[in-house]
Design a protein that fits this description.
Layout (H helix, E strand, L loop, with lengths): L6 E11 L4 E6 L12 E5 L5 E12 L2 E6 L5 H5 L5 E5 L13 H4 L3 E4 L4 E9 L6 E5 L5 E5 L5 E5 L4 E4 L9
Parallel strand pairs: 7-12
Antiparallel strand pairs: 1-2, 1-6, 2-5, 3-4, 3-6, 4-5, 7-8, 8-9, 9-10, 11-12
């Protein structure tokens, strides 16, 4: 099986559907058409165990995906999969434009000012409905929120896991 960092979670199973073993999954991808040609997904339980799941049928119902996996032919069998994450190998990810990124690519990145001052490490990206925020934790465990506005986040180097910021006066004191 793949290591967890070699996988990209693209959906999360939220409930069973029908009597034939189908499950309903919420999408965690901006590319729903990626499911059209998929034959297999990796299921990851809450405990982290993995299993290969062969797709027999799939269709969209509203903004959710309904899946029927081989070997899951009843509602009781399908219940085993509720709360599983569904993932694809990282090498099968959709390539993004150079100025775009996947959230997981930024997690663990070092954040520093354009002057070289270490700010901390990205622990999470928060979606606020407006500008996304980087949750950055410094060596002392202090959490700072850095808006991902273009005039603040001036460089993202995904390969070096480095984000450079030009914080307005007072931002790092909050």
């Amino acid at each position: 099986m793949n290591e967890p960092h070699d996988l990209i979670v693209v959906a999360h199973i939220v409930k069973t559907r029908g009597l034939r073993g189908e499950v309903v999954a919420g999408l965690l991808t901006d590319f729903p058409d990626r499911f059209e040609n998929l034959k297999t997904l990796t299921g990851i339980s809450a405990e982290g165990s993995q299993r290969s799941l062969q797709i027999e049928e799939q269709w969209f119902h509203g903004n959710r995906l309904v899946l029927k996996f081989a070997g899951f032919d009843s509602i009781d069998e399908a219940k085993q999969l509720v709360n599983y994450d569904l993932a694809v190998p990282a090498e099968e990810r959709i390539e993004l434009p150079s100025d775009s990124f996947y959230e997981w690519e930024l997690l663990g990145s070092r954040v520093e000012t354009i002057g070289g001052q270490n700010v901390g490490e990205v622990k999470q990206i928060l979606r606020t409905g407006g500008v996304e925020m980087l949750s950055v934790v410094d060596e002392s465990g202090r959490d700072r929120l850095i808006p991902m506005a273009a005039d603040i986040v001036v460089e993202i180097d995904k390969d070096k896991k480095l984000i450079r910021i030009d914080p307005p006066e007072g931002l790092l004191e909050l």
